[in-house]
Write a structure and sequence with these properties.
Blueprint (H helix, E strand, L loop, with lengths): L1 H24 L7 E3 L2 E4 L10 E4 L6 H7 L2 H5 L7 E3 L2 E5 L4 E5 L3 E4 L2 H7 L3 H8 L15 H9 L6 H9 L5
Antiparallel strand pairs: 1-2, 2-3, 4-5, 5-6, 6-7
Length: about 170
Amino acid sequence: MNRILSLTVASIIATVILLTLVTEASPSAPTDQAITNGWFFSQTGDGSGNGYSVTDEAGIPYWTFFQEAGGVQALGYPVSQRWNHGPFTYQAFQKAVLQWQPEQGMFYANTYDELSVLGRDPWLDAFRLTPPPQAFPEDKGKPFETVKQNHLRLLDNNPAIKTKWYKNSDWL
């Protein structure tokens, strides 16, 4: 009986030592870290240390904009690398897609407009309860301020939504 107990204890000790050595020898996944002109995030990687960088490389200030916009709390973690589509450069985050326009700066991409152009309105309506875009013929050829007011009048149909909308000081 003592011999079985001794062998069991010895086996447990050997297992613990072996697991400790294996754990110490295995490479750990890199964590978030500062990189040249930005930051590397691993939260949306595959768990093996992969992830996405947000940088100010090539004269495109994604990292600066990300920080000024409120960082992870406002935009979420990055979920893509940069990509080009037409004349613009994009990078997706959990809560928004940023669009760099070379002559004008950084903007939030209008993902619903992009999906509409791709013919996804029926899917959005059926599965995400997102109605198709409304046409505003009165906007044609008008200055931005007039177009903005035309669209803001939609809020008059629901005072609760209108109140909530205007509580956000940065609604535009």
